[in-house]
Amino acid sequence: MSIVFSILWHRIIKSHQKLNAIKFEIIHELGRHLPASVYRYEWQLANEGRGRLYRSFTGIERWIPLEFLFLHLVILVISGMQYVQLLNRMTVGH
User: Fold this and answer.
1) Does this model's pTM top 0.70?
2) Mean per-residue pLDDT for 17-35?
3) Range with the lowest mean pLDDT among 7-16, 35-44, 48-57, 84-93?
4) DSSP string, 59-78
5) Burial of 81 per CB tally in 10 Å (0-12, 13-18, 19+)
């Protein structure tokens, strides 16, 4: 179940990332019609998200569910190995 939640969590973050990109395109387009394009200037100062001054939280946030997914897979594999060892001990014991 936790693996499914991790995958869904990752997809929700990607969806919000795309939606936010669209919203900022609209904001920038509206800003072209105003005396000052404040948001465009802010984005330029942030080196369009590639500089050291600004790091997109979505870029960091989208890895968290993948790390949980990996952790759950590791736990699943370890649990499976322990279960097989237990079955082997029970079989050898008889």
Assistant:
1) no
2) 88
3) 48-57
4) HHHTHHHHHHHHHHHHHHHH
5) exposed
